[in-house]
Write a structure and sequence with these properties.
alpha+beta; GTP Cyclohydrolase I, Chain A, domain 1; 2 domains; 47% helix
Length: 203
C-alpha cells in the first residue's frame, strides 16, 4: 500500500498542474482578445495554452525545493582556495513588466571543509532566476544560498544582464548592460580576495 502513495501524489500533482494551465490559458485568451486580436484565428488558437505552459516553465523556481536541489551535492574537501564558476547562463523575468532579462552570472566562494557540486551552482542560479525578479535581489539571493549551503568563508556573485524592459520599451536603449554584485565574508572584508575574483571573472 505504501508504494502506491508516491504514485497517488504524482497523479494529484499532474491534475493540479493541468488545472493551473487551463486557468492561466483562460487569462491569456482574455489578454489576447483585449489587445484587439482574434483568438480564434489559426495562428492564435493554441497560443493561450502555449503561453500558459511557457509561463509555468519560466517561473518554476516557485515550485522547486531548495533542499532537494542541493541535497547530496555537498562534499568534504580540504581545499581552501577560491572556486569560481564563470558565465552561467541566466534567464529571468522583470517583476515590473514581466519581460525577460538575460545575462551571465559569475559565482565564487572560499570553502572551509565543504565544496558544492559544480552543477548545483547553476541550479541555484536557475532556482532564483526562474521567478519574477529584480536583478539586485537575485544577486544577493544566490550569494546567500551558496554561503549557507556550505558555510563558506566568503562568497562573491556578479551578474551582467540585458533587460528587455529597457530595450523593447521605455527608453529603448539597445546596448546597455546592468551589472550587480554581492560580496560576503572574505570577499567583502578582504580587498585582495575581492579583486582576485573580479579579475578572474572578466572575459
Amino acid at each position: 500500500m505504501s508504494a502506491q502513495i508516491p504514485f497517488k501524489r504524482r497523479e494529484v500533482a499532474v491534475t493540479e498542474e493541468a488545472e493551473t494551465i487551463d486557468e492561466l490559458a483562460t487569462h491569456f485568451k482574455e489578454i489576447i482578445t483585449g489587445l484587439g486580436e482574434d483568438v480564434d484565428r489559426e495562428g492564435l488558437v493554441d497560443t493561450p495554452v502555449r503561453a500558459a505552459k511557457a509561463m509555468r516553465f519560466l517561473t518554476q523556481g516557485y515550485r522547486q525545493n531548495l533542499g532537494d536541489l542541493v541535497n547530496n551535492a555537498v562534499f568534504t574537501s580540504d581545499t581552501d582556495e577560491m572556486v569560481i564558476i564563470r558565465n552561467i547562463e541566466m534567464y529571468s523575468l522583470c517583476e515590473h513588466h514581466m519581460l525577460p532579462f538575460i545575462g551571465q552570472c559569475h559565482v565564487a566562494y572560499l570553502p572551509q571543509g565543504k565544496v558544492l557540486g559544480l552543477s548545483k551552482i547553476a541550479r541555484i542560479v536557475d532556482y532564483f532566476a526562474r521567478r519574477l525578479q529584480i536583478q539586485e535581489v537575485l544577486t544577493k539571493q544566490i550569494a546567500e544560498c551558496v554561503k549557507d549551503a556550505i558555510d563558506a568563508r566568503g562568497v562573491g556573485v556578479v551578474i551582467e544582464a540585458k533587460h528587455m524592459c529597457m530595450m523593447m520599451r521605455g527608453v529603448e536603449k539597445q546596448n546597455s548592460t546592468m551589472t550587480t554584485s554581492c560580496m560576503m565574508g572574505s570577499f567583502r572584508e578582504d580587498k585582495a580576495t575581492r579583486e582576485e575574483f573580479l579579475r578572474l571573472a572578466r572575459p
